[in-house]
Write a structure and sequence with these properties.
about 110 residues; mainly beta
């Protein structure tokens, strides 16, 4: 799994690498990526990608599971928080135990 942000159009994108090493086509997982954050990929099951979407004043943390045929399922909602921009924006990380969201003064772990 690979994930990145295309910030010029606020898109979050991801790509699946098969067990044989073949890279599958790029998939857009978000068209409203929050500024100053990046999607993360986690090798969990078939793979999971997580990201922050933005609405005015609100951040939505979402994730999507790879479905095993080169695409992702529908986005699932993990949590909603007050929007915090810049260096204080919620950050997502992939760690061995799952996905970790780190916000100002908070650490929330969630494994999909």
């Amino acid at each position: 799994m690979l994930a990145w942000g295309a910030y010029w159009d606020r898109a979050g994108e991801a790509r699946i690498r098969t067990a044989s090493g073949r890279l599958l086509p790029i998939r857009v997982v978000s068209r409203d990526l929050q500024e100053d954050t990046a999607p993360v990929a986690l090798a969990y099951g078939q793979g999971v990608v997580a990201w922050n979407d933005r609405d005015p004043g609100v951040t939505h943390v979402r994730f999507a599971r790879a479905n095993g045929v080169g695409a992702f399922g529908l986005p699932e909602h993990a949590l909603t928080a007050r929007e915090i921009g810049g260096s204080r924006a919620p950050q997502l990380f992939a760690v061995p135990s799952g996905l970790v969201l780190v916000g100002p003064g908070d650490r929330i772990s969630r494994s999909p």
